[in-house]
Specification:
This protein is mainly alpha-helical. It folds into 3 domains: 47 residues, Single Sheet (Rubrerythrin, domain 2), CATH 2.20.28; 190 residues, Citrate Synthase, domain 1 (Orthogonal Bundle); 111 residues, Cytochrome P450-Terp, domain 2 (Cytochrome p450-Terp, domain 2, Orthogonal Bundle), CATH 1.10.230. Helices cover 52% and strands 7% of the residues. It contains 18 helices and 6 strands. Helix 12 packs across helix 15. Bound molecules: carboxymethyl coenzyme *A. Carboxymethyl coenzyme *A binds next to helix 17.
Length: 430
């Protein structure tokens, strides 16, 4: 007999179906609750609400497990290229050697962007934030590819849009970097792999065609992108699904995801972490002072890079990144005093009852910024790198939402405003 949940409301008992996921997670299906009882559920911040079933990513926050399509993140990060993991996330299976070559070739056909996009930089104020630029540019792709606006296009055409977006994202990210520095653009070189091409467009110089990204940097970048590739129903992925559920096109949905990621509580935390570590360093390196600030409820300061909505034991990505961080700094011979502060802060927090009781551990953003800095990226560019890594995940979430034919997202609310009252004409208002 299939399991049921019973709910008693106003003396009446109702049965609700129970859903079990492939890893044994349980949910009560409340889809018919309002029809049956007149009640809705209330869950601010969706802390306990499953918005969808999904076959892309599994994570267990208590055990610190993260798997994409059944494969452990540790194995993927140690053995794959970013495009291999992207293929897995997008298609559900690891590619064969031929499938990967074909996927890479298709992407390299679309790496150029329309020259018109360059003109957008004239409109952006000097020094404007790269994430605002990125979301505007990705959104504008829908104007260059108006057929993408049609929600009923054949699947082959949708797949072309997906390839196009995967291909143009590194080019656009590199453009943002170049324009910020006032340097001429380096065009994509399609003989290079995805990550090397991105690094060459970013750090290469038109005047020096011989530039080639250091394999140590390519390796670290590959790993970082893989570690960010998907993270199930987080704020930005949910945003992509919500926006896409209105049948908005892929570019607009991803642009919305980029904006959600920008926030300091989400992907924007990697920039905030580095700025916080700089502040602590400039303030004399007193780690204890900042731990106390984070614990003080009257102080809005939070320890950035600590805590996670889902991970309550450790963030498996942070473990891998911490090791990669040590390796990269070692290989590049970088001695960053910020790393020392980060390590002290981590140690102090992990031994402090406030953080232990609340299960607050370093998350993915805590160490990634230190690596990005060692690789030569400016602080406000860090979240762009998160977005570049997260792209396949967002796309897969958008595709799954479509192919599962999910209805438009439209939560309900409990109204707490004024009761009905008679209208008062302007002259009679006090
Ligand atoms: N520093 C100090 N206290 C914290 C922190 C922190 N970083 N994070 C949570 N707390 C406290 C919070 O004040 C609350 O305490 P109390 O129970 O006494 O009121 C308790 O811990 C629970 O916090 P919450 O805000 O209810 O937890 P949440 O699940 O709503 O928020 C979070 C999760 C990630 C937004 C939060 O931990 C945070 O703001 N962290 C800092 C920002 C950050 O690093 N974000 C990156 C997340 S990982 C990358 C990604 O996937 O986006």
């Amino acid at each position: 007999m299939s399991e049921k949940a019973k709910i008693i409301l106003e003396g009446n008992e109702f049965e609700l179906p129970v859903i079990t996921g492939s890893e044994g997670e349980k949910a009560i299906d409340i889809g018919k609750l309002r029809d049956l009882t007149g009640y809705i559920t209330l869950d601010s911040g969706f802390k306990n609400t499953g918005a969808t079933t999904s076959g892309i990513t599994f994570l267990d926050g208590e055990l610190g497990i993260l798997r994409h399509r059944g494969y452990d993140i540790e194995d993927l990060a140690a053995n794959c290229s970013f495009l291999e993991v992207s293929y897995l996330i997008l298609n559900g299976e690891l590619p064969t050697a031929e499938q990967l070559v074909e996927f890479e070739a298709k992407i390299s056909e679309h790496t150029l962007v329309n020259e018109g996009l360059e003109a957008m930089f004239k409109a952006f104020p000097t020094g404007s934030h790269p994430m605002g630029q990125l979301s505007s540019m990705i959104s504008s792709l829908s104007l260059y590819y108006p057929k993408s606006l049609d929600p009923n296009r054949p699947e082959e055409a949708v797949k072309r849009t997906i390839i196009r977006l995967m291909a143009k994202m590194p080019t656009i990210c590199a453009m943002i970097y170049k324009k910020r520095h006032g340097h001429p653009l380096v065009y994509p070189n399609n003989k290079l792999d995805y990550v090397t091409n991105f690094l060459n467009m970013t750090f290469g110089q038109v005047a020096d065609p011989s530039y080639m990204a250091d394999p140590v940097i390519v390796d670290a970048m590959n790993k970082l992108l893989i570690l960010h590739a998907d993270h199930e129903q987080n704020c930005s992925a949910s945003t992509v699904r919500v926006v896409g559920s209105s049948q908005a096109n892929l570019y607009s949905s991803i642009s919305a995801g980029i904006n959600a990621l920008w926030g300091p509580l989400h992907g924007g935390a990697n920039q905030e972490v580095l700025e916080m570590l700089e502040d602590i360093k400039n303030d004399g390196g007193d780690v204890e002072k900042y731990i106390n600030k984070a614990k003080d409820k009257n102080d809005p300061f939070r320890l950035m890079g600590f805590g996670h909505r889902v991970y309550k034991n450790f963030d498996p990505r942070a473990k891998i990144i911490k090791k990669a961080c040590d390796d990269v700094l070692d290989k590049l011979g970088v001695n960053d005093p910020i790393l020392e502060i980060a390590k002290k802060l981590e140690e102090a927090a992990l031994n402090d009852p406030y953080f232990i009781e609340r299960k607050l551990f370093p998350n993915v953003d805590f160490y990634s910024g230190i690596i990005y800095r060692a690789l030569g990226f400016p602080t406000d560019f860090f979240t762009v790198l998160f977005a570049l890594g997260r792209l396949p995940g967002w796309i897969a979430q958008w595709q799954e939402m479509r192919t599962d034919k999910q209805p438009i997202a439209r939560p309900r609310q409990i109204y707490t405003g004024a009761a009905p009252r008679p209208f008062v004409r302007m002259n009679d208002r006090a």
